[in-house]
Amino acid sequence: MSANRAFAQMAGCSTVDELKKHNVVELYFNLDDRKELLEALQVHGSVHNWDLQLKPVGQQDPIWVSLSCNRKGDSTNCYVEGLIEDITERKHSEEMLILSERMAAVGTLASGVAHEFNNIHTGVLGYAELGGRLDDISDQARSYFDTIRVSSLRARDLTANLLSCSSRQSARMIRADLNTTIRESYALVEREFVSDGIDLKCAFGEVPKFLMDRAQVGQVVLNFLINARHALIGCPEKKIFISSGTSEDQAWVKVSDTGCGIPEENLKKIFTPFFSTKGEYARSDSPQATVRGAGLGLAVCHTIAKNHSGRIEVDSQVDFGSSFTLYLPLRDTGEESVGPQVEYPKFFVNPEVSGRILVIDDEPNVRELIGQTLTSQGYEVVTTDDGEEGLNIIRNEGADLVLVDIQMPKMSGIDFLCQLQQIEKQKRPLAIVVTGKMPDAAESSQQGLDVFATLSKPFILDELQAMVQAVLTSDKNEND
């Protein structure tokens, strides 16, 4: 009936006269919202700060508005009069706050799950290494142990990356080979690709080694590949093309597919946490209808790209496929390494260093693994799952070194370390913290507790042995 120009423009019209050409019903994004509003006005006569979504003329995306109005007139000739405010930005801010809290909850959950996983996986990785070191096994059995070990190391990297993303820890930058990282990511899903009948082609260009977090970059590539595989479900032509190269001062890796593609209106939302349309618009009888996504994969990829000062570009067309390209700056491509190099472990040879070592961990597999490994190197090892018992052993029997887990049910590792400081210095052993948490997070809680080093679970046996040897050698040199 009447409106000001501000509402006309809010509704997608340039003038009020243009707005009047449209029925008000057309402006409701959801007609159920209109029904609910009219029922409230019928009962109460007015509403205040009533939130609903409108669809501006000629636009696909709705806007949020807040309505305060009164029902006027009699039962045969009534109308609505009031004020309407565009609150879209406020709603978006509220949504981002809710998403932030959900991400924080996911991070807390991921941290707890990853800690338990790391405890379990310490035994898998450690005993795979011990099995591979046996002399009287066949070459085939040795290859099986090696496969378990390599898979465990990849799982360790992925878990560390999950913890890194959820706890906002900084990336672990080393000089590494991008093409090798791509191949390792593809190796994780190669069997599924083959069984799905996917034709995969690779074209790797010359890319110098540069600073990156291998685990994080590998996760981005893996996510690209998994999304491409999902996009190909039910498609007559199943092709994926992986390529890499350099452009000016950047390295890039691209994953392209011939899949279902992404609608244009969704492209700008794909990096939003928890946004996913996988299978949402597929026919009920389509294979794509079986695919569902959590909406976290590309959100994490976007964060990883930003942490590397890089970016992700997407090109997609419905029914023709998509291309995802990760660009990373070529930082420090010289011969000199800035960080530790990635190498498979070599068998550790322990020099003539002895000592009495106390191991405190509530996981039996971890205690047995550490005890067996260090005993074979000539150390005397005592184990317990109770921090209080560990303190009594130190007071009454003595120890040169203690390895203590941070998270334990009876007494936490931090509480143990605090009480350890009360023991006279002559009887106080050096301490190594063994933890499934992120190293940065673990070390921040140990400040002032005289911890020599932190060993992250799951660890390779060479890391354990080298760290123990370094601690005891350091202590011996100080005493000398």
How would you portray this structure in words?
This protein has helices at 5-10, 16-19, 31-44, 88-132, 139-167, 178-195, 214-231, 264-267, 297-307, 364-375, 387-396, 413-420, 439-444, 461-479, and strands spanning 46-54, 63-73, 78-86, 174-176, 199-204, 210-212, 239-247, 250-257, 311-317, 321-329, 356-360, 380-384, 401-405, 430-435, 451-456. Helix content is 42%, strand content 21%. The chain folds into three domains: 5-86, Beta-Lactamase; 170-329, Histidine kinase-like ATPase, C-terminal domain (Heat Shock Protein 90), CATH 3.30.565.10; 356-479, 3-Layer(aba) Sandwich (Rossmann fold), CATH 3.40.50. The chain is elongated, with a radius of gyration of 30 Å. The protein contains 14 helices and 15 strands. The strands form four sheets. A five-stranded mixed beta sheet has the order 5-7-8-10-9. The chain has a five-stranded parallel beta sheet with strand order 12-11-13-14-15, sandwiched between helices. Strands 1-2-3 form a three-stranded antiparallel beta sheet. By secondary structure, it is α/β, with parallel strands linked by helices.
